[in-house]
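Can anyone check this?
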Amino acid sequence: MDSQPDRPSSGFVPVADLSAGAADANDREEAAILDAFRRAGHRITSQRRALLDVLRSQRRYLSAEALHHQANQRGMALSLATVYRTLALFKEMRLVDGRNVGEDQSREEYRFRSVYERYTLTCKRCGKEVPVEPDIVDAFREEVTAALGVTIISAHSCFTGYCAACTAALAAEEEGAVAPSAD
């Protein structure tokens, strides 16, 4: 593998950065989790691994109490305080998403954040899907947060436009349409 400069710790690992030996999505996901811990300078303790296992198996939003209950049902002795501390670390490392729920938005629920959030631009002309690197979307989310002083809990991105080939073809068509006529 080529040596690449370290990327900032964003919690995401582009597919191209993972080892070629990772055969399936679970292997790639596991490699990305290990890399996120390495980049953040943390170890994966048995408590962290236990909570990750519950989060990864559920793939839906759950309260800290529900996660605590499920972990204990699986025989993992975790205190609720450990669950909250671990979830805070996972949020910092961007391994989980949190959303506020309830009438007064006072409770938070968590779900495992796929380290491979997939964003695409759909070409209006040919229908091709062009991958958009998650780091671009995350940079925009951070810029909005800094510029507006807000806290973004959840964001959804939809890109519609033209792929590179169609953009070039449209530019050529436009250029041909406005070319001065020879008299």
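Reply from J.R.: I decoded it. Helices lie at 25-40, 46-58, 64-73, 80-92, 134-148, 164-177.
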